[in-house]
Please model this.
Amino acid sequence: MASPSLSYARILFLLWLPLIVIAGYRQPCEPIKADDKDRIRFAENLEFIVAEFFCYGALGKGLDTFDPELAKGGPPPVGARKANLDHVTRRIMEEFYYQEMGHIRAIVTTRGGIPRPQLDISSENFAQLFNKALGYCLDPPFDPYADSIKYILASYAFPYSVASLLGVEAGQDAVIRALLYEKVVPYNITMADFTNMISGLRNELGKCGIKDEGLIVPLELGAENRTTSNILSADTNSLSHARTPPEILRIVYGSGNEHKPGAGSFLRVQMGKLREPTSMKIIIKSF
Model:
């Protein structure tokens, strides 16, 4: 088994790899043509994942308990369960759930919404994601529901979506990142190393440059090139990074290809039509 320690050189390699890939093969990183309806439906699929994860983790029950009409008859998630959270973390995640439920309600109210997709937010799927980020199998397998630290770390792995929802979700991301300065037991890996590995993986899969950063970055990537701490992820001008739908799909699929799902199926659903310039249907199958 590979060593659990992550060298600074490997962190740099993971962060800069997308630029090397882009130099050799140009990926479509520019915005694609899609109307508001398609974009919002695309985002709603991602909202369902986060909402159900926060709801089950904090309260041990899902969206159907609070407002089943929002799910529009879609099946309940697979593998979701209440997490072993401390009081403070549980309250934070409960609030995050209510915010996500509000996002879904806003979409349903204004655009009609879609049925909840079949989600798989089981510990087994998270274990696959973290093994892929680290490059070897954790022993014991990563379980996001085991304790507060692992649950917060799993929350860090979710991508965020689109415009009108980003104000609240950027705040959620900031809170999650601020809680990540501890060592993860029993792996003897720091939260900073975990976040750097997850961010490196997402940059590698997205193939459009450095748009994701962990808690510790090289000085040249820090705010004003003066700090290596990175509680708020942003570029050197402290502007937020943005991803196009194809970039998000490459990450959500886990394959680096917006048309081809990889291992670890967290979500299986038709995500609606996004025009590239011609209409295409996107099938989500892997996170």
